[in-house]
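Annual report, structural modelling task.

Input specification for the LMY7XDAE complex:
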Amino acid sequence: MEAKIIDGKDLSNRLREDIKSRVEKLKQNGIIPGLAVILVGNDPASAVYVRNKERACNGVGIYSRVIKLDENTSQEALLEYIYRLNVDETIHGILVQLPLPPQIDPNAVINAIDPAKDVDGFHPVNMGRLVIGEECFEPCTPKGIIRLIQETGQPIAGKHAVVIGRSNIVGKPVALMLLRHNATVTLCHSKTANLREIARQADILVVAVGRPNLVDSSFIKQGAIVIDVGINRVDDKLVGDVNFQDACHVAGWITPVPGGVGPMTITMLLENTVLAAERKWVG
Ligand SMILES: Nc1nc2c(c(=O)[nH]1)N[C@@H](CN(C=O)c1ccc(C(=O)N[C@@H](CCC(=O)O)C(=O)O)cc1)CN2
Ligand SMILES: [Mg+2]
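The model returned the following structure:
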């Protein structure tokens, strides 16, 4: 059996059509949804992601403001920008591109963002609401992962979902979101014993570690849904955490890298920005 590909680019394009019409509706009511993205320093990958976010905003009619700051920017100076954006009526979403240079504490920065404008969903208020199942901004990559799983048409409820990786951006929130969809969730990490055996029990396997080829077919149950969150550059080529060719022989569905989770991250950012504007509109 060969796995079916879950095409994140195609799903993104379809979802962006819906986002476009929501933006149109807001504009008809005098509201232009606005996203501010702050980029600190010269990380080349971050620069590409920020440019892609700007293009994506333009594509759906969201007003985009990119603020580029020097790599030596102090934490105080960055916080000052955030405080101003918090009270800027034209901005509905604020995002600080990660990673940040070493002189800046990312938690201090995330804590400074108004939770109502935290379209990344990283603020402790939004994270806490996610934990207790209240309305919040769901972090973009995990939100995209849930949509990709739903795209298979397979129910999440009652399934055993195994997440490998416990980052605050992906692993922990996606585990909570799968739980919210009534999966039975196992969260694995670098100290997990018998990782392969646990992974092989998964109906849904999410791999978010950042290690190329960590997972091959021996980690995968026949017919499982495999979501590869890894973005690794190997010999100038982009590869995930899953050995795609090998995994395809066993998985039922699988996301490619590139073209799987990545495009969905930006699409969910657009959706969260529209949501922020809609929430402000209806109050
Ligand atoms: N503030 C944030 N910082 C970071 C986030 C985030 O969600 N918020 N996530 C990542 C980077 N990221 C968005 O910011 C991101 C990563 C990858 C992609 C993407 O489209 N990937 C493509 C491949 C692109 C390439 O060639 O490099 C794919 O997988 O198809 C989009 C967004 C860390 N920082
Ligand atoms: Mg991808």
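The domain at 29-114 is CATH 3.40.50.10860 (Rossmann fold).
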